[in-house]
Amino acid sequence: METDETRHTQTVIAYKRMKNILKTSFVANIVLTLIVMCVFIARRSGLLWTDVILPSNTTSTDAQVNNRVSLGSRAICITCGLSVKDLRTTLYDYITTTASSTNLCCLENDPDKQDIILELAATGHTQYIYEGPSTRKLTWWTERNYAAHLYADHLPNNNKLIWTTTRHSTSFVRNLTLSTDDWKKLTVPDVAGAGKYLVYSMFTFDFRDEATINYSQTIRHVIMKNNNSLQSENGEKIFQSTLGSEYMSVRQTTYLSGVVSLNKSDTVYVKAFSMSLREYTTEKYIDASSPYNNFFGMFKLE
Length: 302
Hints:
Elements (H helix, E strand, L loop, with lengths): L1 H44 L6 E2 L5 E4 L4 E4 L5 E4 L14 E4 L5 E5 L3 H15 L13 H4 L4 E8 L6 E4 L7 E3 L2 E2 L7 E2 L7 E12 L11 E10 L8 E8 L7 E12 L3 E10 L19 E6 L2
Antiparallel strand pairs: 1-4, 2-3, 4-6, 5-6, 7-8, 7-9, 7-17, 10-11, 11-16, 12-15, 12-17, 13-14, 13-16
């Protein structure tokens, strides 16, 4: 009997020890999990997308040849959480580590990409308001032959919409003609400009300040083509979009684009308006507060 009691006592002690070990292990796992989560959160919070222009003497490790590669002054880099071994699964050209142990994911020297980033950065500082010519011109964009990109604006004292090149430095007209009577039409001026064009247009409607949203709204967006030499007042619809319902949102965006063949004196223009039971057609709900809300453009493909 004494032996059985001793064995029972040893069993109880062993059970208590095992129970304590399991408790300790459970607590340790919880603490370890919390530490891993904190490290993960801290690491993620450090992944800030910051534009970095590397100096000409900056070097980077190329994963494919495993040596030091010089990145030019026009390289585009952002901070990232990737390492050199991750390069093959990304679209970056190089991954480098700075002296402060910050990983940078980089694209090769590309002046066009850099110009885009600098233009967007400058736009952010001016709150999308054009305040004069940009110090860095997007020549690849603005110097395309037979091309135009326009932003919408309202004429003073009325709600008539016009297209302009003065709202932002990315707008332009090159080798095409913008009508000066209504500032709405783009024309191919000569035979050399004949060919296939990509034509595109976007409009943004805002009904938030109006009670008309209580009525069923319909938005119509049309791209038209005409030929000035034929003296025809009725243009040809080449692209059209219609949207709207009783339950639609108070803000709506409509976009159209397509390829069309144009000859000398062909004119392209766009129309957009809203309709309801209370108002037949109107442009006054087109939101022109930002130049990026509405644009119209075309460029020659061949």
